[in-house]
Amino acid sequence: MKPLAANIFAIKRYALHDGPNIRTTIFFKGCPLACWWCHNPEGIDFHSKVLFLAEKCVGCGECVGHCPEKALGLTSKGVFRDDDKCTSCATCVQICPALAHEATGRSMSIAEIITEIKKELPFFDQSGGGITCSGGEPLSQPESLLALLQACGKLGIHRAVDTSGFAPVETLLEVARHCELFLYDVKHMDSPTHERFTGVANDLILANLKALGDDGHAIRVRIPLIVGVNDDGKNIHATGAFIADCKGVQGIDILPYHPSAIAKYRKLGEIYKGASLTVPTKAHLAGVAEILKKYVVDVNIGG
Ligand code: SF4
Ligand code: SF4
Description:
By secondary structure, this protein is an alpha/beta fold.
């Protein structure tokens, strides 16, 4: 039987903003949302692609002969790729010495991921850190996520899950039995506005947050703060009041919008919807934090 695998687009070591202390963050590929400000656009598509970064190519021709689909050719102008023939097999990714072919995700067995995680055990032990499963949306690969969390549990590693909350409640509560902390996004209290900027309504997300608390799990709520989207007083008060009414919430992290992902969108050949969005000032962030503190004691700016 084939070992259980997860589709992963990155593993980040020494992560300091993905939960308590020093962590290793495992990014699961694929997300049912498509937020305008998403800073991991390579994590949205459930299918992996291979990008060709022509500016990195040194023209050695190595990849051309190895492509099993004969999708690559070399001319005096450099390498070209016939996208109709390319099956994203990633052979060229392995071959290219210049890293000019890049995969947006790859299948990793749970054992492979655990091998990577084990390298960081000394840092977890010293700092009290652990792993954070993020994405994309980790709950969209429930079997793989559960297997990874269970394997980490056996090793005594602290486990956090960073989620949009958009998943069947049964999946969420099953995953909750195998992790110590949720990092849970709340983006907007008005459902049509939420749908406009993320692609989905908010009713399932809000109901799941309540269900998670009612079931006795620990949660830190994360609010990505975007000027003109969710930063107005009415929405911030409504958000604070809703969170105050949820059990299990230990605190709120306000994550200021920043446009640093724009280069990733260019690389993927995708339109960055966030180009019109504005970064909040320090004073504005402090004002939002003051409002939220009326509802929840522990409010932090940043991850
Ligand atoms: S192997 Fe890499 S550097 Fe060489 S031709 Fe292919 S893309 Fe260019
Ligand atoms: S991903 Fe596979 S099929 Fe596509 S160009 Fe590279 S080697 Fe060829």
